[in-house]
């Protein structure tokens, strides 16, 4: 069975870097075509292993192929989870998660997005996240405030927290956070969930220690959450970097304030 | 801070009962206005206790007021969680959850919906669910097949399951289901999650025993999930009825097949 809902063009704000905007548009168009052409079963079929060592679903492949065309057109480099590093001799690298929430995208759960950051000299300068099912976009430049703001909450008691689903070995930490927070959601799309933190819809998002995140899962949050007044850190305090080493993993924690991030991390690490 | 995203008109299929269609349109329009006029904090403020004994948030009140206007215009009766039973002397009663996923709606998590069923002589004849943030609609008539189908999955191993967040006393049952299923999501909107079961996006949805559901939380699923080939049952086998007794509660389980519902229930009830 096909997913019978349209994928609109993303609603991009003025000022987005043209190469990043083109990649985002290409991603929405490709995912929309993929839904029309393929059943859910076909979209989630594993067609290869990505450069990061995890399996690539057909939906990932289709969208990444469209992004590859886009970056060649725009003569910029790419770092992405399936293709790895693609060198077009540019000073700019787009660090992109073509389909964040791949399983959602393949099954039809309407929570998946394109996420991309522009990186120059190892530093991200701007980031764009576009939600496929609605065209909503969140854009931020490093060091410049965004029109949207985090909630400003400082305490875990009473907080609304998005978590990754409990994974083997992290069940107890997961349960500790769930029992402290007021509301827990599991949406299975890190890039969208961190944008919900940035826009003040939820107070925090966390991987409670499964070390699932690659740099492209967190690149947009690294720019956008601080620009909106929040923080984005690794659970174990490891610094983020944009090296094209896809074996590196983090447990990302996005929070409305540094105090909330600290309390969340303490709850995970210290029973 | 306000929720700065629009609420489109619902995209209603031809054939929806005019009173139900009018209520759905009124709900989207009212929620859209509420987002423009009120901050998140104001939307979630508890302004009263509903007829069912749970607190009413401002967002619930605003949308239900618009629905009350609609049912008076259309001279039908209403059964809803805040107002209770409103008798307009009609043979038809609309059983409505004005805002399913009230917390999502108030905070801005884009997962909330209108859900309404037409009930005649105690039997539901049709049901409509409309997702506020996109206008997507799911409609079904009792006993008539829908264009969308469940996944047909029969086993919990490998399944994608939506759960209510773990509540006090149900944590162990929750963890048992989470450890068996392949993917777990917590979207906090029963009516949308059961439509994802009906359209074949996820395999099942369950309240693992917290007895949270009132009849208006399940009314649309009672019609729509079976019409799409699945089942909608109570965890403890209690029959559903449409009596205006809002003290009654169920633990709804929606599944792609009877076999999957049975296995899910067995996993919850028998450690």
UniProtKB/TrEMBL annotation, chains A, B:
<feature type="binding site">
    <location>
        <position position="81"/>
    </location>
    <ligand>
        <name>Mg(2+)</name>
    </ligand>
</feature>
<keyword id="KW-0479">Metal-binding</keyword>
<feature type="binding site">
    <location>
        <position position="217"/>
    </location>
    <ligand>
        <name>Mg(2+)</name>
    </ligand>
</feature>
<dbReference type="Pfam" id="PF00459">
    <property type="entry name" value="Inositol_P"/>
</dbReference>
<dbReference type="GO" id="GO:0008934">
    <property type="term" value="F:inositol monophosphate 1-phosphatase activity"/>
</dbReference>
<dbReference type="GO" id="GO:0046872">
    <property type="term" value="F:metal ion binding"/>
</dbReference>
<dbReference type="InterPro" id="IPR000760">
    <property type="entry name" value="Inositol_monophosphatase-like"/>
</dbReference>
<protein>
    <submittedName>
        <fullName>Inositol monophosphatase</fullName>
    </submittedName>
</protein>
<dbReference type="GO" id="GO:0007165">
    <property type="term" value="P:signal transduction"/>
</dbReference>
<dbReference type="GO" id="GO:0006020">
    <property type="term" value="P:inositol metabolic process"/>
</dbReference>
<keyword id="KW-0460">Magnesium</keyword>
<feature type="binding site">
    <location>
        <position position="100"/>
    </location>
    <ligand>
        <name>Mg(2+)</name>
    </ligand>
</feature>
<feature type="binding site">
    <location>
        <position position="97"/>
    </location>
    <ligand>
        <name>Mg(2+)</name>
    </ligand>
</feature>
């Amino acid at each position: 069975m096909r997913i019978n809902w349209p994928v609109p063009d993303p609603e991009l704000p003025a000022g987005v870097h043209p190469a990043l905007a083109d990649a985002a548009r290409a991603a929405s168009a490709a995912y929309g075509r993929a839904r029309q052409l393929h059943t859910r079963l076909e979209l989630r079929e594993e067609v290869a292993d990505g450069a990061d060592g995890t399996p690539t679903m057909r939906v990932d492949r289709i969208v990444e192929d469209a992004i590859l065309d886009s970056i060649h057109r725009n003569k910029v480099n790419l770092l992405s989870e399936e293709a790895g590093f693609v060198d077009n001799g540019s000073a700019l690298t787009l660090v992109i998660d073509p389909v964040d929430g791949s399983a959602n995208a393949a099954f039809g759960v309407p929570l998946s997005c394109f996420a991309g950051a522009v990186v120059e000299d190892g530093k991200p300068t701007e980031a764009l996240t576009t939600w496929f099912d609605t065209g909503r976009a969140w854009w931020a430049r490093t060091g410049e405030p965004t029109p949207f703001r985090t909630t400003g909450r400082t305490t875990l008691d009473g907080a609304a927290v998005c978590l990754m689903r409990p994974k083997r070995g992290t069940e107890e930490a997961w349960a500790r956070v769930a029992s402290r927070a007021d509301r827990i959601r599991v949406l299975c799309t890190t890039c969208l969930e961190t944008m919900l933190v940035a826009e003040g819809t939820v107070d925090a998002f966390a991987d409670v220690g499964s070390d699932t995140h690659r740099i492209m899962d967190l690149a947009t949050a690294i720019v956008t959450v601080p620009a909106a007044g929040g923080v984005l850190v690794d659970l174990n305090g490891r610094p983020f970097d944009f090296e094209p080493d896809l074996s590196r993993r983090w447990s990302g924690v996005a929070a409305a304030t540094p105090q909330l991030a600290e309390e969340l991390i303490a709850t995970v690490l210290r029973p």
